[in-house]
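Sample pair:
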Amino acid sequence: MSHPAPATSPRHTVGTSTPDQPPTWAPAAPTIALLTALGVLMVGQMYTVLALLHPMATALGTTPEQVTWTATAFGFAYAGGFLLAGPLSDRYGSRAVITAGLVAATAATLAVSAAPDLPTAIALRSVQGLATATFAPSALSYAVHHIAPQRRGTALTCITSGMFAAAVLLQIGAQAVAAGLGWRAVFWIGAVLMALGLMPVRRVLRPTLRHGTGGGLRQAFAAMPRLVRRPRLVALYLSTVVLMSAFVAVYTAVAIAGPPGIAGNSSAILALRVGALPALIAVPVLAPVLQRLAPPLRTVLAFTSAALTVAAGSFLGGHTVALAIALLLFVAAVAAAAPAVVETINAHAPQARGAAVALYGCSMFIGASLGPQLTGALTGLGFGGILRVVAAALVLGVLLALPSLRSPTSSGS
């Protein structure tokens, strides 16, 4: 981590206004459980449509390839929302921003369920993306500010793993709900769950002390231009774009490109989605072991593993079990990479964590927005060809992550 643990007891620290020294640390278990569960729900709104492309296309009078724009519109709005939510969280406190975001996201999600045509659905998904963007940077900032240092790595791993689990869990849930109740019910249920989340947020999370003096939001936003002038941070943000683009592209390829022998078989496609769940459980459980490696090294190793598993999967489209294993290992690599990148970014920007995490989240969802369009542009190559292009992109991600292996105190970081 970027700061050593305080010299005093981990639950009673000296000082009241610095991010690493609140009066008492928040209880880790309920905080992690709540933020992880909400991460699945809120971030998962990005991915629900990947399981709804065909029913939405039928209802809205268009094609599945055109419906992917509802994912892209959400992702770009989400990325922009991160840039607002990070500084707002620093200024007004994570709990306040999460609360306001849940209210706005509930309304926006209900509105999506009533979309009469594709252009309206795209516009409403943009609003939904902007509203739900308030959660992730606020949750990560809350963990950094309120969880004791010795539990913080585990907290970040659980929260980010929950956000990745959303890509699988909410696709599975959306597919099941749409089959029984129709695609609009997916958004009704999502809105109800968001509204129900307000009570535990108010009960479990603590108000965050405002940090720093003077400057207000201007000071918070001013940190961003300084961060994007640092080459190694820029490289990490670009590697995050690559990682998330690859992640979403692979699952979009499963949905619309159809692996040979699996295309049109909803049960087989569901099995591929479900097969990745053990990885999203195993990575948080193994967090104490993984954290023995320095975050930059974990980042590079995870990117390398992701590239290798996608390359292997590109030759396994006709074999459901073998492809499921490749996707399992790929998701594990992605889930291990995400918290490692967050910790590395924090180490390179200890004085501007909110802005740094906001830029990280923006990078994530720029990548997530590009993923469906990447797959759509490459459908002519077939499932295997798409995955080989994705594997090549992940090799670029490895190269972008390599500079972070140098100490953050080195010049030019």
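The chain has one domain: 28-405.
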